[in-house]
Amino acid sequence: MNLEQFRRDYLQGGLRRNDLPNDPFALFAGWQQQAIQSGLLDPTAMVVASVDAAGQPSQRIVLLKNVDEQGFVFYTNYASRKAQEIAANAKVALLFPWHVMERQVRVSGEATKVDAAESAHYFAVRPRESQLAAWASPQSTTIESRQVLLDKLAEVRGQFGDAEVPLPPLWGGYRVIPHEIEFWQGGGNRLHDRFCYRRQPDGNWLIVRLAP
Ligand SMILES: Cc1cc2nc3c(=O)[nH]c(=O)nc-3n(C[C@H](O)[C@H](O)[C@H](O)COP(=O)(O)O)c2cc1C
Fold first, then answer.
1. CATH fold of 17-127+167-210
2. Model's pTM, two decimal places?
């Protein structure tokens, strides 16, 4: 398999300093909206990178469920590998791989748990089967077989019957509060445009252009 031939030029557009809003969340919202409209599969999918105690990074895809001036929210299991890593080191990075639009957004920041009320609010709108799965799956642990998971699912299904499925104690959201957000737009002949917003001590954002 020859992978060397796979390349293309990025010609969809450019980014100019004068077109950038002062607020990176405003730019992000526009790009997220365009990603949704582009027909991209899983347009809210993002990669979350965390680091373990030995400095070993690991990454996984999660779905962005909320974004506001505070940060980027995703939901997961609070005993998962990512959660254990975040508990010891809250520094994380996010990546939105919107390459059909010749774009990527990178975020560096710190993850904090969202409060239980916010998690419960989101949990309540999930499909019932997803709610039950959250109770049944000890995410990231070793299991003997798929049957173990199905048995556990049957158990929690029986436990809750027709009742509302409550928020599991080990399930909830993280909000990633960014100190840096980089917007990358592909350019012709590898002369891409990159702008990085860096949060300043006064809360304002400094915008710098980075070489591609
Ligand atoms: C498209 C896609 C969306 C996903 N969304 C989530 C999510 O929102 N939350 C989550 O915990 N895992 C999600 N996963 C699974 C994670 O990638 C990962 O397998 C899981 O969270 C366990 O990661 P960990 O062992 O590093 O904690 C998703 C996977 C894919 C491919």
1. Pnp Oxidase; Chain A (2.30.110)
2. 0.97
